[in-house]
Design a protein that fits this description.
With about 260 residues, the protein is mainly alpha-helical. It has helices at about 15-50, 55-65, 70-75, 80-100, 105-120, 130-145, 145-150, 155-170, 175-195, 210-220, 230-235, 240-250; strands spanning about 195-200, 200-205. Helix 9 (about 175-195) runs antiparallel to helix 10 (about 210-220).
C-alpha cells in the first residue's frame, strides 16, 4: 500500500509565517488609524477656529503635520473627510445615548428618553455653531441622501431596537419597526431644527414633549395625554381602559330595561 498521495497536497503555511504577517498587518493598520485620526482632529480644529467648513485640504495637511500624499492615501478629498467627521459624530452620539439609556427601565420610557435626547442634540444652540450639521449635513442631504442614510445607521439601529422592545412588551404596535424608528428619528431631528410653528395667533415652538406625544400616538393610539396622567402611563394599560369603557356603557342602560343574569 502506497503512502504517497495520488494528487499533490499543498503544504500548509508555517505557523510562524502566519504570526509574522498578522503582526505586520496589525502594526500597519494601527499606523494608518493614527494618521487618519490626526487628519480628523486637524479638520475638527479648523472647523472650531473658523466656525465653518470652508477650509482647504492643504490647511488640514499642514495642521496635521503630515503629507499631502498621505492624505490622499486615506481620503478621496475634502468631501470624504467631512463625511468621516459626520459619521464619527453620529456614531459617538449613538454610543452616548446607549449609555444614558442603560439606567432607564421600561420600553416606552427608554424610547421617550431617546426621543428627548435626540431632540435636544438636534436643537440649535444660540452662540454655538455646528457647521458640520448646519452646513455640510444639509448640503449632503440634497446631493448625497444615501450617504446621510448610511451615516445615521448607528442611531437607526438603536431606535429600531427600542421600538422592537416596546412591541415585544405589548406597549406598541407596528408591522415595520425599522420604518417606524426612522419616522420617529426624523420627526425629532427636523422638528428640533425648526424655529417655530404657526399655532394660533402667535408662532409657537414645538417642544420635545409635543414630539413624543405625536410619536406615542402613532405607535399606540394613546397620544394627546391630558390631566395628570402621561401618555406613557396611558399606553401601558390599554386593556384596563377598554374594560372601563365597557362597564360605563352597561351602566347607562335605559330605565325599565330587563337585566339579563350573567
Amino acid at each position: 500500500m502506497s503512502v504517497v498521495p495520488a494528487e499533490p497536497v499543498e503544504s500548509p503555511e508555517p505557523a510562524w509565517r502566519q504570526r509574522a504577517v498578522e503582526r505586520s498587518t496589525r502594526a500597519a493598520k494601527l499606523r494608518a488609524e493614527q494618521r487618519v485620526q490626526r487628519f480628523l482632529d486637524a479638520a475638527q480644529e479648523l472647523i472650531a477656529d473658523k466656525g465653518t467648513t470652508d477650509f482647504t485640504v492643504q490647511e488640514v495637511v499642514e495642521r496635521s503635520r503630515q503629507s499631502l500624499r498621505s492624505f490622499y492615501q486615506h481620503f478621496d478629498g475634502k468631501h470624504e473627510l467631512l463625511l468621516a467627521l459626520f459619521e464619527d459624530a453620529l456614531s459617538r452620539s449613538a454610543t452616548e445615548m446607549r449609555e444614558r439609556l442603560s439606567t432607564v427601565t421600561g420600553p416606552l420610557d427608554r424610547l421617550k428618553v431617546a426621543v428627548d435626547l435626540l431632540y435636544d442634540s438636534s436643537t440649535p444652540r444660540e452662540g454655538q455653531q455646528s457647521p458640520l450639521f448646519t452646513d455640510f449635513a444639509i448640503q449632503l442631504l440634497v446631493s448625497h441622501p444615501d450617504q446621510v442614510a448610511t451615516a445615521h445607521l448607528p442611531l437607526l439601529a438603536l431606535f429600531t431596537e427600542l421600538v422592537e422592545d416596546a412591541v415585544k412588551a405589548g406597549q406598541a404596535v407596528t408591522p415595520r419597526p425599522r420604518r417606524t424608528a426612522s419616522l420617529i428619528m426624523q420627526t425629532a431631528m427636523f422638528t428640533a431644527q425648526a424655529p417655530a410653528a404657526p399655532v394660533g395667533a402667535q408662532p409657537s415652538r414645538i417642544g420635545a414633549e409635543d414630539v413624543w406625544e405625536f410619536c406615542l400616538g402613532g405607535i399606540t393610539g394613546a397620544g394627546q395625554a391630558t390631566g395628570g396622567e402621561s401618555g406613557t402611563q396611558k399606553a401601558a394599560a390599554p386593556k384596563k381602559a377598554a374594560t372601563k369603557r365597557t362597564t360605563t356603557k352597561k351602566s347607562a342602560a335605559p330605565k325599565g330595561a330587563t337585566r339579563t343574569k350573567a
